[in-house]
Amino acid sequence: MKAQPAASHFVDGAYVEDKAGAAIEVVYPATGEVIAVLHEATPAVVDAALASAARAQKDWAALRPVERARILSRAAALIREKGEELARLETLDTGKPLQETRVADWPSGADALEYFAGLAPTVTGETIPLGRDMVYTIREALGVCVGIGAWNYPSQIACWKSAPALAMGNAMVFKPSEVTPLGALKLAEIYIEAGLPAGLFNVVQGRGAVGGALVTDPRVAKVSLTGSVPTGRKVYAAAAEGVRHVTMELGGKSPLIVFDDASVEDAVGAAMLGNFYSAGQVCSNGTRVFVQKGIKARFLDRLAERSARIVLGDPMEEATQMGPLISAAQLEKVTGYIARAKAEGARLIAGGGRGPANDGWFVEPTVFADVTDAMEIAREEVFGPVMAVLDFETEEEAVARANATEFGLAAGVFTQDIARAHRVIAQLEAGTCWINAYNLTPVEAPFGGAKRSGVGRENGHAAIEHYSQVKSVYLGLGPVDAPY
Ligand code: NAD
After folding, report:
1. How far is CA 183 from the centre of its chain?
2. Which member of 6, 105, 150, 429 has the greatest number of CB atoms within 10 A?
3. 394 CB contacts (<8 Å, ≥6 apart)?
4. d(CA 250, CA 431)
């Protein structure tokens, strides 16, 4: 199986190669096969990408918002037309099953293009009366924005960042994760096919150093990163040096609190979706499932039964529900967490092994019960299909323990008591919350984290604010009253 693109980078409307950059082998996680070899961007490629973005951005920002919107809408339609081809490429890049990549990855990217195409022309300013004089405001583009992606949702991330950026009149230089570099190149092709002028969406490949070169370039006005907290700290600090705007979408260790009165089937289904989708490699996963004692036995029984039925295997097979982890390194990390959870006394009630074939980078959907707050799997982001179930007695206790983490990306509550649902959600320190649902992230809703999980928001009206700035214009309508 090969998925070699025409070249490594996409700059100023065309594929660009520079083999002087270090090689990046793209591996299909289901087989370990090298499906493409790309090269890291050299300083010359980075410079060309930023220069063409800066050149193209001014004319783009000067267009009417409906004209920009028309192009984004066309790109969304092309993504939907090419749905099957793009889903297969995403599966090769990530190892996620077609069951997911057909409905979640690119389709949610297309949603973002459609949504921001619709929203951009509605963005207006204020007029502020001051008696004789007045102030009016204009929401302007920032300029050249840099997007840096994680490997778990490579194409969705490229769309979620570029759609609001472009809709508001910015240009974007995007660096995908070196682990999953293929989808963003396709997006660049699609934008050009849809009529986007050259230079407005450039893709450069590379590891952290290439990201670092982008973040510190004086031509860059904004940096949006999706990645881990340690990377976020570095990128935020580097961006601060140039007083750049930032959006940081970082990691999590999110709580899902299930009260005694919840529907067991719904809560179990949500806990599984919130731990096993994309083989658990989702930032907002509810990896600490707090279950009230009265419902615990029934919850664990159903969870163990349903988890054992998840179909692992070839991601290209229609029936497969869970693919491998992204890499050998991730497999080692996740199996290490499983081994240490057992050693710390967590009770394994499902999975724990490497799957039927016992080879490849697969890990079974794994559930630990009787987890305590102090255990490593209750504190650290595993980023694999490993659920920790903890028990609690009172609402106050659940809230306090749910909040006892440096992360604050997401949180969920299952209960039939509507007052309790809102009361608990109001106290949870998280940017993205669900009541009687989990991990649904429609583009209409702002998405992002509190505490160490990030700053800024993607999606929703909120994203518009993070890809624009307000110009305030004072209009003097009478003589200038100078005291000199
Ligand atoms: P990572 O932090 O290792 O890398 C993220 C990106 O940053 C990559 O493109 C990488 O090349 C780049 N990078 C690394 N060092 C850099 C530097 N010094 N300067 C500039 N760029 C640099 O993360 P990952 O392993 O690709 O992804 C997994 C992590 O991402 C998890 O922690 C997960 O929770 C998080 N994540 C968060 C969200 C969200 O929306 N909050 C979504 C998906 C993933």
Report:
1. 14
2. 105
3. none
4. 12
**pLDDT at residue 421, as a whole number:** 98
CA 129 to centroid of chain Cα atoms: 41
What's the confidence (pLDDT) of residue 1? 84
Probe target for ligand 1 pocket from 226, 281, 453, with the most ligand atoms within 8 Å of CB: 226
Exposure on the CB side of residue 31, measured as CA atoms within 13 A: 13
DSSP 198: T
Task: Give the per-residue pLDDT at 343.
Answer: 98
The DSSP result for 100-146, as a single string, is HIIIIIHHHHHHHHHHHHHHGGG----EEEETTEEEEEEEEE-SEEE
| Per-residue pLDDT, 344 | 98
- Spatial strand order of the sheet with 347-350 comes to 347-350, 366-369, 386-392, 288-292, 255-258, 410-414, 432-435
Is the sign of the CA dihedral 62, 158, 177, 388 positive or negative?
positive
Check: CB of residue 36 under 8 Å from CB of residue 69: no
Q: Which two tokens stand for residue 407?
A: 């992360």
- Rounded-to-integer distance, Cα 225 and Cα 146, Å: 8
The secondary structure of residue 151, as a DSSP letter, is S
Distances from the Cα of 205 to the Cαs of 10, 220, 421, in angstroms? 9, 17, 44
Catalytic site includes residue 458: yes
- Residues of the chain whose pLDDT is less than 50? none
> Strand 127-130's sheet: what is its strand order?
127-130, 133-141, 468-475
Element (H, E) at 85: helix 83-94
> What per-residue confidence (pLDDT) applies to 355?
83
pLDDT of res. 359? 76
* Residue 411, H or E segment: strand 410-414
Distance CA 171, CA 192 (A): 13
Handedness of CA 150, 55, 164, 105 (dihedral sign): negative
What is the per-residue pLDDT for 358?
67
Which residues partner with 245 through β-bridges? Answer: 222
Q: What are phi and psi of 57, to 5 degrees?
A: -65, -40
List ligand 1's pocket residues with C-beta within 6 A: 148-153, 175, 177-178, 207-208, 211-212, 215, 226-228, 231, 234-235, 249-252, 283, 381, 383, 409, 449, 454
